[in-house]
Write a structure and sequence with these properties.
Blueprint (H helix, E strand, L loop, with lengths): L8 H12 L4 E3 L6 E5 L3 H11 L8 E3 L15 H10 L4 E6 L6 H4 L4 E5 L4 H10 L3 E2 L14 H7 L5 E2 L12 E4 L6 E4 L5 H8 L28 E4 L1 H14 L3 E5 L13 E5 L4 H16 L5 E5 L8 H12 L3
Parallel strand pairs: 1-7, 3-5, 4-8, 10-13, 11-12, 11-13
Antiparallel strand pairs: 1-2, 2-6, 3-6, 4-5, 8-9
Length: about 325
């Protein structure tokens, strides 16, 4: 086997052996680091739920080496699924399809559907090819918290002996786009790097997600998610300015994430940390979780995030910020 950047052949072999013995392995994808388990091993899947503190009804995403393996896991592959797989796999797109007979409830959260993607990261692809089967892999963090985009983030979450494959910083930085193809009309269940407009270019109209709690349940769909320990507020520009004035008057420690320039007083303020975020949606997304994790360690009272633009390319970032802030409202 050829070495993959960040992981040696021995590293991949050790991870495959761990998966086959029912152990868990953390590995990089282009979206976030995943906490992987053999998708055919119910005991291993139960370990994922236990380690994350994740509800057993919250389904896991199945990762495959290539689309040719779909028929082993789904009852049918509709034309729209084939078209999307051809266009976007490998890549940050998850398809929800009717599950095949024999697919475990532990993988699907007890539903009749299964969520599947083919990741693009070379280490994930090397691992999946060597393993030869499906790997269930939610994000490698405690349930509801900020997803990991670097190996060091995984080790901070799970310091006790978890095998972690090194893969550098995740190129996308936000979880995959999720599309349900269970009904006649496709439905976008979670926004991601692949936008609704891009999906519609391939398969035509795509409906918005249904009401909160509607079937199918998918990862990252709860109102409160992706949250640091420090309270988060997402504010418009004028509200942010007022909040900073009030915090300064109280001597309150504040961290700010903004695409705008920091006020001149921030350089000398002992209570204000200003994080200047990128102007483009992809760059902002790539840095979002690492920035939240870093600010969470500062010991400030609050993290204030300036509202991002309304364009479709910002849908995934807005979704993650609203869920992070919902925990504290």
């Amino acid at each position: 086997m050829n070495a993959v950047a960040g992981a040696s052949p021995a590293d991949i072999d050790a991870a495959v052996a761990a998966l086959r013995s029912g152990e868990l392995v953390a590995f990089p994808t282009e979206t976030v680091y995943g906490l992987g388990a053999d998708a055919r091993n119910p005991a291993a899947l139960r370990k994922v739920y236990a380690m994350k503190g994740r509800p057993s009804t919250h389904p896991l995403i199945l990762h495959l080496a290539d689309a040719a393996q779909l028929s082993q896991w789904v009852a049918a592959v509709p034309p729209a699924a084939q078209a999307l797989a051809t266009r976007f796999w490998p890549g940050p797109l998850t398809l929800v399809l009717p599950r095949a007979s024999g697919v475990l409830d532990e993988l699907t959260g007890g539903q009749d559907s299964v969520a599947i993607r083919v990741p693009a990261h070379p280490i994930a692809r090397a691992l999946l090819a060597a393993f030869g089967g499906g790997v269930a892999a939610p994000s490698a963090n405690r349930y509801g918290r900020v997803s990991p985009t670097r190996a060091e983030h995984v080790r901070e979450e799970f310091p006790q002996g978890l095998l972690v494959l090194e893969g550098g910083e995740c190129a996308v930085g936000l979880e995959s786009t999720i599309v349900s193809l269970l009904d006649a009309e496709p439905r976008l269940l979670r926004p991601g790097a692949i936008t609704r407009a891009q999906l519609e270019d391939v398969i035509g109209p795509v409906l918005e997600a249904g009401a909160p709690g509607a079937a199918p349940r998918v990862p990252g769909s709860t109102a409160q998610h992706y949250a640091p320990q420090t309270p988060v507020s997402v504010l418009g520009t004028s509200d942010l300015a007022r909040a900073l004035t009030d915090a300064a008057a109280r001597g309150e420690g504040i961290a700010v994430m903004s695409r705008g320039a920091a006020p001149a007083t921030s350089a000398t303020s002992p209570t204000l940390h200003w994080e200047h975020m990128p102007q483009s949606a992809p760059d902002y997304a790539r840095l979002l979780y690492a920035t939240l994790r870093r600010l969470d360690k500062l010991g400030v009272s609050r993290i204030l995030i300036e509202r991002v633009p309304a364009g479709i390319e910002w849908d995934a970032v807005r979704d993650r910020l609203s869920r992070a802030a919902a925990t504290f409202t």
